[in-house]
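Hey, can you fold this?
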Amino acid sequence: MNKTEKKLFRQYMAIVLSIVLIVCVVLSVVASLMLKANSRNRLETTVDEVIVSFLEAQEDDRAAKNLISDLVKILSEVGRTEIIMFDTYGNIKIASEDYDNFITPKDVRSSMDKIIAGEKVYFETKSDFLYENIAIGKPIVYNKIIIGGVLCVISGEFISDIMMEILNYAALFGLVLFVVCIFIARALAKRQSRPVNMLKDAISLVSAGNYEKFVPLQLKGDLEDVSADFNKMAETIMHQEQTNKEFIGNISHEIRTPLTIITGFLQGIADGTVPEEKKNEYMGVVIDETKRLTRLVNELLEIARLESSANPVKLQNFDVNSLIKQVIIKFEKNIENKNLNVNFSFEENTCIVSADKDGIERVLTNLTDNAVKFADVGGYIKISTVTSGGKVQVAVENSGEGISAEELNNIWNRFHKTDKSRSADKLGVGLGLYIVKNIINQHGEHITVQSEPGQYTRFVFTLSRERSLKNGNKD
C-alpha cells in the first residue's frame, strides 16, 4: 500500500473499530437489561407455578409436600433457583438446602412478614458475581385466605453465567465483523486512493514541467470538481508557459533589433565606412533606437511592477478632468506639429473619481500618445467624461486610419502593433495598451475600443465616482 492508501486504511479501521466497539457495548447493555428483566419475569413465573402446584395438591398435604420438594430440587439444580415455603406463623415448611447462601435470615424474616401481610415483595441481595441475587415473594391465598407464602431467589451466578455466554457470542460476532471490515476497509482505501494517486502523479508531472497530463473526468463527487479544477490549472499553466515563451521571444526580438542597428551603425561610423555627410543621419537613427530600447526596458519594468502582488492599487479622490488637461499639455508640441484640433467634452466642470491617480495618469498618457501618433494630419482628438450612476466613462477618440476588425481583438496583447511598418510609431514596442488594460483591470473597471477604418478610433474606460476613503488621500 502506498502512503495515501495506508492513511485511508488507518482512518477506515479507526472508524470500523469505533463502530464495532460501540455496537458491542450497546448490545451488551441491551442484553444485560433484557437478561435482568427476563430473570425477574422467569422468577415471578416460578413463584406462580409453585403456588398453583401447591394449591392443586393442598388437600393431600403429603402429596403436596412431595410435589413441592421435587420442584424445589429441580429448580435448585437446573435453574439455580432457591425456594422457601412457609405458613402464616412464619414457620418454614419447605426450603432449598442452600437458600441461606443467597439471602440473609434478616431478609427472609422481613420478607415473610410482608408476604403474610398480603404484600408482594421484590428485592436484590448482594452477590459475589457480576449480577446480584434477585428475590421475589408472594402470599399463598386459598379461598381468599392467606395460608402461607413463597419466597424464591435466583442466583446472581446463574444470571452472570448467561451474561458471559452472551458476551462471548458478542465478542465472537465483533471479531468476525472486525475481520470482515478489514477486507472492506482495504478495498475501500484502495478504491478511494486511486483517484488521489492519479492526481498526485499528474501533479508530479506538472511540477516537472509536463503540462499535458490531464486527470480523467469520470471521477465522482468532490474529486470530479478537483480533477476538473486541476485540468483547468494545468491548461492555464501550459498556456501561460507558451505565453511566457512567446513573451521572451518577443523581448529577445525587440531588444536584438535595436541593438543590431545601434551596433551596425556605430561600427560603420567607427571604421569610416559611413560617409561623413551621413554620420548625423546615422547618429539620429542610433539615438531613436536607443530611445526605443530605453522605452522597452521601462515598460517591462512597469509590467513587472503592475503584475506584482506587492503593488496594490492606492485609491485616492481626484478630479479626472484636471488630470486629462495636464496629460494633454505633455503632447502639446506633437499636437501642434500635426495641426490637430483638441476637443474637451466634460459633462461636469469638476468630476471627482476614486482611483490610483498615478495609474490613471499612465492610462491617459498611453491612450493620448496613441491618439496623437495615429491621428491624421489636421485631424482631431476628443476627450470626454460622462457620469452614469456611480461610474464615470472616460473616452479618448482620434480621427485617422482606425483599426481593422481583425486587429481589434489583438490590440491588448503584449508586443502587438497595428502599425507594422512603424511609419507612425517609430519608438513603440507594443506594450502600451497591455499596460493600460492591466491598470484598468486592477481597478476592477472595464475598457473597450471602437473603430471605424478610415474615420476614427475611440477608447472608453470606466472609473468609480468619489467615495469615502479611510486611508486614502483626497486631491
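Oh, and this one too while you're at it.
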Amino acid sequence: MPPTGRQRDEMGIDLFSITFELERSCGVKIDVKDIAVAAGRDVESAPQKDLDLTVAQIHAFLLERRNEIKTVSAQRPQVEERVRQVLRTHFLDDRRDPDSDEHLEDIVPRVNRRRHWSQLAEMLNSKLPLLELPWSAKVAASSALFALVLGITLAGWRIAFAIDHIWIGSLIISVGWLAGVFAASELLATGLQTWRRQIPQDAATVGRLADYVTVGRLAESDAPLLTMSDDEVFTTLRDVLVEVLVIDPDEVTPEAKLVADLGMS
C-alpha cells in the first residue's frame, strides 16, 4: 500500500522502496508501516533512527504474512458452508441447500435487495461488492439527461434569435444547463435508489460469493510468497535489499540493521 507523504518523510524513501519491491516480488499487500509495527515500533512518533529494523525482523514478518494468508485460504470450505447456511436460513427458509453454481439472482429477493445485500454482508462479517444497476437503468438515465440538455440548448437559441441577442441566449443556456443538470441529478439519484439492482459478477453465484469473502477478496491466493520456503523468502528479501540499497549480497545477514549496517537513509 503506498505511503502518505508524512510516512515517507518519517521512514525514508528507501523503506518505501523496499516495501514496494517486496510487494512486487512476493505478490502480497504490505502496508509501508506493517513491518515496523510487527517489530514493536511506533511508526507514528518514532524518528527514523529508531526504526532501524534488522533483516531478521523483516524476514519474520514475511513468514508471518505467508502463514496468515495460508490460514485464510485453508478456510475456504468452511466459508462456503457458512454462506450456504446463511442463504438457506434467511432466503430459502431451510427448504433446500443451494448449490455452489446457483446464481444469487435466484436467491436474494429483488424487492428491497439493497437491504438484503447489506444484511448478508453483516451476517458474513464481510464487505461485499456493490450491487450494480441494470443496463436499462443506465440507458434511461443517460437518455433523460441528454434530452434535458438538448431541450435547454434549443430553447436558449430560439430565445436568442427571437430577441436578436446572442449573449442573452448563451446566458440562458448556461444557467439552464446548471439548473437542469442539478435538478436531473437529484431526481435520478432518488429514482435510482429504488431501481432494482443486479448481483455483481464477482459474487454472482454461491461459490463466487464464498471466493470473494475469503481468497478472492484477498487477491493473494496465487501469491509467489505462498509457495516459498523459509530460505527462499530470505533469498527474496536479500535480493530486494541488494537491489534497492545497492549493496553486496554478503552484507545481508539476519543481524544486519537497515540503517546502521546497510546504509538505508
